[in-house]
Design goal:
3 helices; about 80 residues; mainly alpha; two-stranded antiparallel sheet
């Protein structure tokens, strides 16, 4: 079964660059939204667009948290949830 966004390319993280995305400090939200829209397939659905915007925002938020040292290591997460190392 194909999900709403299953035909979209996977997003790969490489350092502070995100598969063609630039961090938001360098580009306005409006410009980034226009870029996302332009990259959609002609037969894209509203779900496809919303998925791409959600993923873009989630990655940006995660990068900001990482740069602000608001992250946990795997060992600490495992310990907090009582998981084996």
């Amino acid at each position: 079964m194909q999900t709403a966004a299953s035909h979209l390319p996977r997003i790969k993280l490489e350092g502070s660059r995100i598969d063609g995305f630039v961090q938001m400090e360098n580009v306005s939200i409006k410009q980034e939204a226009q870029r996302i829209i332009e990259e959609l397939a002609e037969d894209a659905t509203w779900d496809d667009l919303m998925y791409r915007i959600y993923v873009r925002q989630a990655i940006e938020s995660g990068l900001h948290d990482s740069e602000s040292n608001r992250t946990l290591g795997v060992k600490e997460v495992r310990a907090r949830f009582g998981l084996k190392p």
